[in-house]
Design goal:
about 525 residues, alpha/beta, Alkaline Phosphatase, subunit A, 2 domains, 15 helices, disordered N terminus
């Protein structure tokens, strides 16, 4: 009997050891990944230390890129805050989201969000700072950011809030992790900084070792001290965003959770300067993107494949083992994450399509400036469906922003260019950033990095223009863009801000009048 008893104990011990081993094995090979999604507010792709701006200090982004993958060709769906974020959350283009594709619109509940799908499948979801917006959050739209991204974590603030936003993003993430450990669930956390969105504190860059004299001014802006100072202030705010990112990475590493966490670092749209944000040029749509995931992906790779922000939702859902909704337009790039190759991995990812409709209420009637673009190889082709309208906002119409040219954020650069618009050397740059644009634009990025020389009307480039236009329109038709049926529902979607919401309920010709020129 003793031998049998001992044998039984031995069997129990062996079974227990096997169960422990299986449990441990699951944690290292089959456990659902945590997700840390980090998104800055208004940052062009080139403004990190690893992508071409040596005068900026972004060790957080650089670590993610060096230990993970740096994507050279990542683009937002739309160069405007709320539409871009709506596309990220739903995996759909802005023209497929009704008023969700507009600034001061709203995401209807008919559109599934990847964050909610993760939550429904066992994830603990939370956020700090900006998730979606500005936009409506009631009625038939998602009610508040907690309905979009779970539990809010905003209680911790910094002692000094004079320079940038007051929120201690990293400490709020630490608070989330503390609570999450009690749940035993995988997590999805959205770090949505308010930086580098305007306004900037003037000279904050120079005061924090971002030297305006060493700043590289894009060729579509005027190289003067005022604009250098403005760019330096913008770069410092990117550093602030990155400093909290680095703290979050270190926190995960200290807690032993880094290896099983997918960390995505990107932005919603480009820098808040003329001919950048709210435009389909490179500085408006080309985004920073780096992704790391412990040993699950081979680090140190640089990938050339084109990624659109609509691809994030299906990728994260696949990583979490959650079914991707049938109407999601984006395509998962898990194959790229799991590959050991670099350069071009998926030959079908050879182009990306971007779009914009209405940004601010800055034209009489609140009318949009509808544009679509295709970026393929070294080429960008843009079609502006309403070239008679002012793309940056009407010169004399004062709408919701309280300024003329309302689609350009207010600040030193805007003020300087308007005040000196008739000066030699500045008038040309003013026309590029503030003036009307033709129906078609064509740029060769390899020779015209800043997209200044439009070749759309040059007969020598008629063939490439025709090919790009055909491919763009085929894609837009396939993905259900109303513009391909000569429809413009955006003319009538509400602009959910006080009197402007009421105006958009009126017939267009009854909404506003155009003031006389000053």
């Amino acid at each position: 009997m003793k031998r049998l008893k001992h044998s039984g104990i031995t069997v129990i011990i062996l079974v227990g050891m096997i169960m422990i081993w299986l449990s441990s094995s699951k944690k290292t090979t089959g456990e659902l990944p945590n997700i840390l999604f980090c998104i800055s507010d208004d940052q062009s792709w080139i403004h990190t230390s690893i992508t071409g701006t040596p005068d900026i200090n972004t060790p957080g982004f650089e670590r993610v890129a060096r230990e993970g993958i740096l994507f050279k060709n990542a683009y937002c769906s739309a160069p405007s805050c709320a539409p871009s974020r709506a596309s990220i959350l739903t995996g759909r283009h802005i023209y497929d989201l009704k008023e969700g594709g507009l600034l001061f619109g709203g995401i209807r509940k008919e559109f599934a969000l990847f964050s909610n799908l993760l939550q429904q499948n066992g994830y603990n979801v939370g956020y700090t700072a900006k998730v979606y917006g500005p936009g409506k959050m009631d009625g038939d739209t998602y009610w508040g950011e907690e309905e979009i991204m779970g539990q809010e974590h905003m209680k911790y603030q910094m002692k000094s809030s004079e320079e940038v936003g007051p929120y201690d993003y990293a400490r709020n993430f630490k608070d989330f992790l503390k609570q999450n450990r009690k749940t035993g669930k995988p997590f999805m956390f959205w770090y949505g900084a308010y930086e580098p969105h305007r306004p900037f504190d003037r000279n904050i860059g120079a005061l924090n070792d971002v030297n305006p004299d060493s700043v590289k001014v894009p060729a579509f802006l005027t190289d003067v001290d005022e604009i250098r100072t403005d760019i330096a202030d913008y770069l410092y705010e990117i550093e602030w965003f990155d400093s909290h990112l680095l703290k979050m990475i270190n926190l995960l590493e200290k807690r032993g959770e880094l290896d099983n966490t997918i960390i995505i670092v990107t932005s919603d749209n480009g820098m808040p300067f003329p001919r950048a944000k709210a435009t389909l040029y490179e500085y408006g749509t080309h985004m920073p993107l780096a992704i790391m995931w412990g040993n699950r992906i081979k680090g140190g790779r640089i990938v050339d494949d084109f990624i659109n922000s609509i691809d994030f939702a299906p990728t994260l859902l696949e990583a979490a083992g959650v079914d991707i909704p049938a109407k999601v337009t984006g395509k998962s790039f898990m194959d790229i994450l799991e590959s050991s190759e670099e350069g071009t991995i998926d030959p079908e990812r050879d182009m990306v399509v971007t779009a914009i409709e209405r940004h601010t209420y800055c034209r009489p009637g609140g009318l949009p400036y509808p544009s679509r673009a295709i970026r393929k190889g070294n080429w960008t082709y843009i079609v502006n469906f309403e070239p008679d309208r002012y793309p940056a906002g009407h010169p004399t119409f004062i709408g919701h922003t309280g300024q003329a040219y309302g689609d350009i954020d207010g600040g030193i650069t805007k003020e300087y260019m308007i005040s000196n618009k008739d000066q030699p050397g500045i008038s040309e740059m003013f026309a590029l950033g503030f003036g009307k644009r033709p129906f078609e634009e064509l740029y060769d990025i390899s020779t015209d990095h800043y997209q200044i020389n439009n070749m759309a009307m040059d007969p020598s480039y008629a063939a490439i223009k025709g090919e790009l236009k055909a491919e763009l329109f085929e894609y837009l038709t396939k993905t259900g863009d109303p513009r391909m049926s000569n429809e413009s529902p955006w003319d009538y979607y509400p602009y959910y801000v006080g009197e402007y919401e009421e105006k958009t309920k009126l017939p267009i010709d009854q909404r506003d009048t155009i003031p006389e020129w000053n």
